[in-house]
Amino acid sequence: MMEKRIYTGFSFFEFIWMFLVRIGVLIGLVFVAPHYNENPVVILIVLIVGILLIIIIGDDQIVIYSDRITQTTNSLWYLFFRSKDSTYQIADIEKAYLDIPPDPSATEIGVALVLMAVLPKNNSNRNTSRPIFFELKNGKTVQMLTDLSWNQMNKIVDTVNMLTKRSN
Prior knowledge:
The chain is α+β, with helices and mostly antiparallel strands and 168 residues long.
């Protein structure tokens, strides 16, 4: 029996971005494949890496049911192998919360702007994942890393906290 979904959090822009990346890789593979006879080893490696990219990359999705919360990745790999499927039972959760950083002071903002202008840009760290924390009834705290917007993360926290109060 399939439970009814209460809320589904996903980033439409992340979904579109991953779709465009897949299309870009597919177009690249179409252009590279006819050159297989010129350099079979390199073209084979490019084809394998491209196909793996199309299969593995995906966007984040968090679904809240009446009895559990599940995080999945919307990728072809997940559809076939059910990897990265984090599930927490609502009955096991005491409360959910976000680690919201404090508002910066005017001095901190000024220093950050000066440093951004002076220091070279480092584009290697593009990890935008932020955690949603779940304090469990057994005293442990677990987190779900997600790329969802703050509004969606707040909606998830509010919905989970509402459901945990009902189950108590």
